[in-house]
Predict the structure.
Amino acid sequence: MPISRNNPQPDETIPFILRPFLRQRSEEEFGWLFWPAKHMPLLTSRRAEVILLRVRLVALLFAVLTTAWILIDMIVLPWPNWGLLAAGRLAAGGAFALIAFRLTRTPTLTATYLALAALYAIPTVFFIFSYWVIQDVQLDSLSSTLAGIYAFLPIIMIAGLGMFPLTALESIVFALPVVLIELLSGLLEWHMFSLSQMISSTWLAAMIAVVACLCGISQLGFMIALVRQAVRDPLTQCFSRLSGEELLEIQFILATRSNTPLSIAFVDLDNFKSINDSFGHESGDRVLLNASQKLRSVLRTGDMLVRWGGEEFVLILPSTYCKEAAKVLERALTQGLGDRPDGRTMTASIGLAERTLDSPGDWRKLIEIADQRMYAAKNTGKNRIAGPTELFSPAV
């Protein structure tokens, strides 16, 4: 049974751990669990923040434990072996400390991948170095126990992947090198185990990688659910104000850097309060839903609709000059924004602002300009668009 918007129930072949997430998700969002290419920007930034924070915490823990383990090596291993391991541990501990205290705080996907790769590269290199140091040491029972602990280091690393909200592809990319190192260590006879034990160890590492992958995509699934709740207005399914502010900031920065236009339209439904007062809030909700659908129908690919609050909407039109934006808005006013409960057409007053024309200092000022023009449109008769003086549009 396929997963779709019309039939969102997952079939029995879907892992149980994913079913709570999949019951209310589309095929597109289901794909987000497996590869990150089409993640929405807000999800990417939130996920990057979480991963970077956990990388810093794990790196700090490893910095302390890796260095403290020198005392165990001194007791168990002979000189100069424990001295070489101590030097390796100090280098590894210093590298972990750099990740914990000097890691970039910019939550980009590239920075996240680099941080996670560094976190896993350090113990992988130390794992290879440690076996080079102790492979010729005559081990007693206590030393053999220590060697066994070293042998399970890759498995511990793989299990740690379950801490991070990774896609299936990302989990495979980070786990596969560690599994291969575990296999290679056996083939090169680094292990203190027999061949059968080495095969069992590699198989265990692979199985734990699968479990860690499921844990990671389960975390990602619930993060997608939380982000979607924060991103979308529950009534109209437009972007919420919180996510709209982030989108505005991102689009304003991009437009400023590339010196391209960015138009903003502030839309306020006319006489909406009278609908709630005369017909009730349920009727008001239906009008809001119909109006949002009408507005969405005139948007082009790349345009964004935000419910700013109450009966107010904001349209974000990237790479669009004021005259082009006015044509989009005129289509909305021409077709109408649905019907009021009494059968009359729902209208709106719209204020239009554009970055290159209005020269605002930031996106907040651009919104403020559009808001002021919306009031100008309302005060001059409603059902019209007010932009810069030369672009003032009468009722349509």
